[in-house]
Amino acid sequence: METIRLGPRFDRYEELLALILKSFAYMDGRIDPPSSSHALTAESLRRRSEEEIGFAATTGPDIIGCVFCKPEPDCLYIGKLAIDPAHQGKGLGRQLLAAAEETARSLGLPALRLQTRIELTENHATFAAWGFVETSRSAHPGFTRPTSIEMRKTLSTKATSSKV
Q1: Which of 66, 91, 103, 124 has a Cα at 20 to 30 A from 55?
Q2: Beta-strand pair 111-117/133-138
Q3: What's the mean pLDDT when you consider all of the chain?
Q4: Whole-prediction pTM value?
């Protein structure tokens, strides 16, 4: 498996979109409101890769994972972390987060931040195992109950061995 940074010459956004939709499909019918992944297009992913820092994980010719990272004043926001279901549980999420951690350190940011839906308790457990802690809960517009959990991971000062 190789982690590559998305850049101007990356042109496989249809494949990236298919990966995200396939990876997030298990959420359909489980979360309310529905995942924002349904609003993505290949073009919106291309624009996102220009505005944010994106990584794709590949094996041979296949894209099997991705993550988008957005610098914020005090952290690096992690979004659209997607792993092909056939490749889950093999350390690929950790590999992509290592690239995000290295990026945060290179930008002088002390933490990673992400949001996960209330209903996805298995994600909460995975992120906790990766060093994230819950920091707050919030509601999507129009909801009176919490729909999302925010989690943060404070980074140590040691470097990682991932390629950025």
Answers
A1: 124
A2: unpaired
A3: 93
A4: 0.91
